[in-house]
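Hello,

I think I submitted the NAP job twice by accident. Can you confirm which output corresponds to this input? Input:
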Amino acid sequence: MSHNNLLPYNTMRMSAETKGIIPIYSEQDVFEVLVKQLSPLKIIGGGSNILITKDQDAYILKNEIKGIEIIDEDNDKVLIKVGAGENWHQLVMWSISHNLGGFENLALIPGCVGAAPMQNIGAYGIEQESVFHSLSAINLNEGITRTFYKSDCKFGYRESIFKNEYKEKFIITHVNYILSKNHKLNTTYGAINNKLEELKITEPTISDVACAVIAIRQSKLPDPKVIPNTGSFFKNPVVSISILESLKIEYPEIVSYPIDDNSVKIPAAWLIQHAGFKGQRVGDAGTHKNHALVLVNYGNASGDDMLSFAKTIQNGVATKFGINLEPEVNIW
Ligand code: FAD
Ligand code: NAP
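Support: Only one job matched these inputs. Its output is below.
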């Protein structure tokens, strides 16, 4: 394995050669890469949301831009500027230690800050867009820095402009968030409330919520360092109420959560489990025994093995429920 191999840089533990892996510590480092006209370019943070299926005929920019600074504040709020190469969970812990609210439900999500707007990371009833202010990114074709405000980013459910029309066109270098000094907790997500009750916490702080989230996640999700995975492999599908009603005739126990008056979200994990794939494996590619939505590499699965198993799941779910599962993970 050469030093240009991506094996140490992705949580599914896929081996893939590249044209070179270039650490980026500053905006200046990006401009220097552009002056050298190295191409094509791809960007990696923590590698926790990519499935690599082949060698990459590209130079990989490994984001290492650090720094967390408070750039403005008033009595209620603080505006922070964060380097895109900061670790997300460490940023959440920084906010808790400074008693700044807004990130607590998003504790223990792997990866770097620069990738958070990319798929508008979310968990336990909160998405990063709820605290997002703006970001700086460099256009890799033109070498020009641009500021994106919330309305420019087209945030959606695990979506943004950077996952679609601007994919691989910009490198995000800094993200600005607005955190609160007067906290409004969101504990409506059932599992958080249950955990706080179990811990007998009646007036939770942001630290209590983060601790509850960490405890729930550690009890349910496989640690990628132990069992390689990329978290949820598919998005939770959103379907119309009429589709849900027709499914309920055959599957009255089906789980759903309202999105709006016309549509609901069905947990992909429920569909995969009830299509018979929970804990299944083909060779070294499988779903985790505790969480059907998490595809895991049990040893030496290749990217193609993982993709082929994912397709088997998609076909199984489509045949049984008539619902198409869409990957959340970025396929390289
Ligand atoms: P990478 O995998 O390195 O990159 C992901 C994509 O973003 C790639 O296409 C890459 O090119 C692009 N990208 C990365 N950095 C930049 C940048 N600076 N500029 C432009 N493009 C960039 N996600 C959730 O939303 N919620 C969860 O609760 C959650 N839980 C997870 C649990 C586990 C155990 C695992 C393994 C993953 C989980 N994820 C979750 C998925 C993942 O952690 C997030 O999507 C995270 O934001 C990915 O960050 P990363 O730095 O690892 O991104
Ligand atoms: P869970 O609590 O078992 O619930 C299954 C799914 O049902 C979730 O994905 C969630 O959708 C939805 N759900 C549950 N309770 C809900 C509520 N009160 N209101 C609205 N939707 C609800 O899920 P889990 O797999 O253990 O994950 C817990 C949280 O962490 C979820 O928010 C999940 O998205 C996030 N997570 C994400 C990843 C990833 O890689 N993307 C990995 C692990 C966990 P939502 O996903 O839309 O919230």
